[in-house]
Automatic annotation (TrEMBL):
Protein species of origin: Ficus carica (Common fig)
InterPro entries named in the record: MFS_dom, MFS_sugar_transport-like, MFS_trans_sf, Myo-inositol_Transporter, Sugar/inositol_transpt, Sugar_transporter_CS
Name of the protein: Major facilitator superfamily (MFS) profile domain-containing protein
GO annotations of cellular component type: plasma membrane
UniProt keywords, alphabetically: Membrane, Symport, Transmembrane, Transmembrane helix, Transport
Length: 509
């Protein structure tokens, strides 16, 4: 429900950004965060809890596209990428912190109420601090409030750059007004698609947001404990602790992005990121194929040891000797595998899956499996997960938001950013809701292989369709999109020309 709310919030957020400004939209998002947290913490039952989740989702959707946009428009070009990447680091760092906070509240009275209610504190803090910050100077300029915009820009930019920035921004706004006439507040999908710069920007921006989700990141973030169990780690506690490591690596990768984004550029970082993601997913697919095709056998003798708890499907099987752990688990949700007390890789027992049987299995110093099976290659799955996060986070984790914050013409920036963020959240929902079903239907190995193939397609998409915007003023990005069509590597060449154009412009100014 939170993700569903985020889809709506992102869609509404685009309109709010253009109508009322970036700062006002963030304040509205903070208000929704706070209300959602209070409602969830005080919910007497599931219905009100769901209402609170929707409120939080609305805030998440608005903030997800507004924050990078606001930071981008209020940042000098040479450090714009690093500052937007910092936003990504604080998001992933916040996720890691939330794991620790939830862990601390597990033994507190009212457990989950504290976990959900504490989210109101950062929302309230940001609301107060946002009151001290200015509106986006580019949005003010577009709305005709030039003196306010100039005053803010003089505080942001060095003295030797301010005049050229103001001139470039003024020319951009005047060009838009000449093209659109007096109907500056009427924006339709048809108009967006007919405008060449917007259409090309949307192809790159929306494509990146969709691929960010369809390469499988949130299967790892949402289901990392499950994936760890599928790899053969039976303990819930072990799975949760390893998922904490995953969140930590995600935050660490965002720090790497801050350092490299304005040095190597957006496009190179994306290519390196996706190349690593493809390798990692290939490793995960191979490991899970090995764990599922070579799982321990089911022993009639071991199962008979728990004669009152034999899984009915196994008891009724014609050829029980051919059963292994994976076949036992797939036979029915009511079946579990109790590993051998001597060695977890030796034949074990196929039993009914419930708490009583689980406790009985544990009492004999055996491991109990209901998701994945014992494997000597499970540690390779952990390496694959770690590599996936390490490669994904600095590139595909942050760059799509950076590109979307700087690629659209000023007049369409809020609406287009909202469209791209909405596409991201819809893709998020599709992937999150389909992952477990896919693993059940075709197996974990094939599921990760599908994500790997999508990652290869994403790599080709980046090479052909995504611009290099490193160090370019936002107005120069628009000119780059206007002058040439999409084809392989044209962005890099155009980038050089735009930089040259920018230098000439600065000299003439």
């Amino acid at each position: 429900m939170a993700v569903a709310g985020a889809i709506i919030g992102a869609a509404i957020g685009g309109w709010l950004n253009d109508r009322y400004g970036r700062r006002s939209t963030i304040l509205i998002a903070d208000f929704l965060f706070f209300i959602g947290a209070v409602v969830m913490a005080s919910a007497p039952g599931p219905p009100l809890l769901i209402v609170g989740r929707v409120f939080v989702g609305l805030g998440v959707g608005m903030a997800s596209m507004t924050s990078p946009l606001y930071i981008s428009e209020a940042s000098p070009a040479k450090i714009r990428g690093a500052l937007v990447s910092t936003n990504g680091f604080l998001i992933t760092g916040g996720q890691f912190l939330s794991y620790l906070i939830n862990l601390a509240f597990t033994k507190a009275p009212g457990t989950w109420r504290w976990m959900l209610g504490v989210a109101g504190i950062p929302a309230l803090l940001q609301f107060i601090l946002m009151m001290l910050l200015p509106e986006s100077p580019r949005w003010l300029f577009h709305k005709g409030r030039e003196e306010e915009a100039k005053a803010i820009m003089r505080k942001i930019y060095p003295a030797d750059e301010i005049e050229s920035e103001i001139i470039a921004l003024k020319e951009s706004v005047e060009t838009e007004l000449q093209q659109k006439g007096s109907n500056t507040d009427k924006i339709s999908i048809t108009k967006l698609l007919k405008t060449k710069t917007v259409r090309r920007g949307l192809i790159a921006g929306v494509g990146l947001q969709v691929f960010q989700q369809f390469v499988g990141i949130n299967t790892v973030m949402y289901y990392s404990p499950t994936i760890v169990q599928l790899a053969g780690f039976a303990s819930n506690r072990t799975a949760l602790l390893l998922s904490l490591v995953t969140a930590g690596l995600n935050a660490l990768g965002s720090i790497v992005s801050i350092y490299f984004i304005d040095r190597t550029g957006r496009k190179k970082l994306l290519v390196i990121s996706l190349f690593g993601v493809v390798i990692s997913l290939g490793l995960l697919s191979a490991v899970f194929h090995e764990t599922t095709s070579h799982s321990p056998m089911v022993s009639l003798q071991e199962t008979s040891h728990f004669e009152d708890f034999t899984c009915p499907d196994y008891g009724e099987a014609i050829n029980g000797r051919a059963w292994n752990c994976m076949k036992c688990l797939k036979a029915s949700p009511d079946c579990g595998f109790c590993a051998s007390a001597t060695d977890k890789l030796l034949p074990g027992a196929c039993l009914i899956s419930n708490d009583t049987v689980k406790d009985t299995c544990h009492q004999e110093s055996r491991l109990w499996y209901t998701r994945g099976c014992p494997s000597k290659y499970g540690w390779l799955a952990l390496i694959g997960l770690a590599l996936y996060i390490i490669f994904f986070s600095p590139g595909m984790g942050t760059v799509p938001w950076i590109v979307n914050s700087e690629i659209y013409p000023l007049r369409f920036r809020g609406v287009c950013g909202g469209i791209a963020a909405t596409a991201n959240w819809i893709s998020n929902l599709i992937v999150a809701q389909s992952f477990l079903s896919l693993t059940q239907a075709i197996g974990t190995s094939w599921t990760f292989l599908i994500f790997g193939v999508i990652s290869v397609v994403a790599l080709l998409f980046v090479l052909v369709c995504v611009p290099e915007t490193k160090g370019l003023p936002i107005e120069e990005v628009e000119k780059m999109l206007e002058m040439r069509g999409l084809h392989f590597r044209f962005w890099e060449k155009r980038n050089a020309r735009s930089s040259s154009s920018q230098q000439e412009k600065g000299q003439s100014a």
